[in-house]
Amino acid sequence: MRFIELRSDTATQPTQAMREAMYNAEVGDDVYGDDPTMKELEEYAPKLVGKEAALFVPSGTFGNQLSLFTHCKRGTEVILGDDCHIVMHEVGAASVIAGVQLRTLKTSGGEMNPDEVRSTIRAEKDIHYPETGLICMENAYSDGRVLSLKNMSEIYSIARKYNIPVHLDGARVFNAASYLGVDVREITKYCDSVMFCLSKGLCAPVGSMLAGSKSFIEKARKCRKLMGGGLRQAGFLAAAGLVALKKMVGRLGEDHENALLLGEELSKIPGIKVNMKDIQINMVFFDMSETGYDSGKLVKEFYKNRIKINPEENGKMRFVTNYWVKKQDIPYIIETFKKVLNENCN
Predict the structure, then answer these.
(1) Of the residues 247, 281, 301, the one at which a domain ends
(2) What DSSP line would sit under 85-143, residue for residue?
(3) Which residue range(s) make up the domain with 213?
(4) Which pairing describes strands 166-169 and 132-138: parallel, antiparallel, or unpaired?
(5) Which of 1, 123, 301, 335 fits 340 for a cystine, CB–CB 3.0-4.6 Å?
(6) Last-in-domain residue among 202, 229, 247
(7) What's the gap between Cα 208 and its chain centre?
(8) Residues in the chain with pLDDT < 70?
C-alpha cells in the first residue's frame, strides 16, 4: 500500500534506475582504493561543485563533523549560526569528535551578519582566547530558507582576510542552486570545503560527499578512517550516488513547485497560517495552533489515510515534498486535512 511521505526528504526511496545501478555495480575494497565505482563518484562529484577532490561519507552529519575534525585543532573555535544543523541536530558531536568550541551567532533567514562575524573572530593574540579555527555556513538552511550569494561572498571575504577556512553545510545545496537559478558552483566558490547529500531530494539510499582541495581531502580520508568511515565494497552505494548526481539534480525545481502549491492550498484552510515567503525549496512550515487540533493526533489520523507526517516542533508543522510526492497527491493531502479537522468539530 502506497503512503505519501511528507515527514522529510530523508525518507525518499531509491529510484528504479538506482536499484539497477546498484545491482550491476562493479565493486572492490575502497579502503584499499580499488573500488572502481567509488573512484568514478569521487572523480565526478568535485567537478560539479568546483573543487579539486571529494570523499564519500555515510551521512551528512558525518561529513560535517569530519570537516570540523579535519580543519580544526582541538580547543579552537568555530563560528556559525545558532540555529544551523551542526548546532541543532548533530548531537553536540563537535565537542566529542573535533574537540572544538562552537561560537554561535543569531541569524536572520539563516544568514549571519558579516559585521558580527568579523567582530567575533579572535584576531587578537591573547592567552585567554581560543583561536578561531573555522567559519561554517549552511545553504540551503535546514528550515528551508536560502542564503543570498551576497551574504556568502561577504563572509567568505572576511574569512580570507583573516586566513580562516570556511565550511559549507550544503546538504541541500542543489536545492539552493535551483532556487537561486544559478550553477551550484556559484554557491560553493564561497567555501573551502562543502558537504552535500546524495540522499534527501536526490533519492540515493545512503551517503554524502565532502569536497575540497586535494590536500584537505587527503587529510580527511585518514580522519574518516579514524571515525569508522572506511567502507569496503562501497561501490554499491556509489552507484546510486552517481545516478543521483547525474539524473536527479535537474528535477529539484518540481519539488519546489509542489511545495508552493501545497503551501497555497494549506493557507486556504481556516486556522492554518503558512509563511509563503519562506517556501524557497521543498519545505512548507505552518502554524495550526488556531485550529485547536493536537498535532500528535493529526499524525495518527493522517497515517490512517496513508500519509506520513511528523508532529510539530517548536510550535511549527513541516511538510516536505520530494520525488515521490506528485502534484496529483496534493488535492488528496488537502482534503484529508480538511476532513480530519471537520471530524474534530462535529
Answers:
(1) 247
(2) HHHHSSTTHHHHTT--EEEEE-EETTEEPHHHHHHHS--S--TTSPPEEEEEEESS-TT
(3) 14-247
(4) parallel
(5) 301
(6) 247
(7) 10
(8) 345-346
